[in-house]
Hints:
The structure is a single chain. This protein has helices at 12-22, 47-62, 96-107, 165-168, 170-176, 178-191, and strands spanning 3-7, 26-29, 66-75, 82-83, 114-125, 128-140, 156-158. It is an alpha/beta fold. The structure holds inosinic acid. Inosinic acid binds at residues 70-73, 86-87, 96, 99, 117, 149-153, 165, 177.
Amino acid sequence: MKKKLVVATNNTHKLEEISAILGEEMELLSLKDIQCNADIPETADTLEGNARQKAQYIYNNYGMNCFADDTGLEVEALNGAPGVFSARYAGDGHDSEANMQKLLQELEGKENRKAQFRTAICLIMDGKEYLFEGIVKGKIISEKRGGAGFGYDPIFVPEGYDLTFAELGNDIKNTISHRARAVEKLCTFLKG
Ligand code: IMP
């Protein structure tokens, strides 16, 4: 019988991405699959802390092996902001448009446009915790370009490319992204 692993998300895209790599070996369950409708707390001040908090919530309440992730955009000239606050940079509305506008304003007149997306994953397996990290480096341009993706994708150009994540589209993004890199490390660990 396949081992069960809870992915602390209801994001079908994340689940598909992970089952494409791991589906043969593990049975992946979403929060919905385990009937978890709770608003899982994410109150830590680091990406790792939030990932751990979410994974611990599932492990402690459902007693199942699981993993959770958290992602942030870290901008060098802003000392790593918005970072763990990426989703609510411009307020609690989680409004991507407002978040991008605020970031572009903060960077106005700044020469250093270097930034990176960073994903932290916390896996809890038989009571032990493991952390994985995925990073994609790049830069923030000064106006939005492209219609694919979500969040800050229209203003982020990954290193080695001239197009934004939103112009590159999901097929390319999913092979080079922070999340893909973190998930790859997780999958290598689980397969090993
Ligand atoms: P989450 O931890 O995956 O929910 O990501 C937190 C926030 O970071 C999102 O609400 C987005 O604003 C931003 N973000 C995360 N991943 C991406 C991405 O792949 N592209 C653009 N923005 C992202």
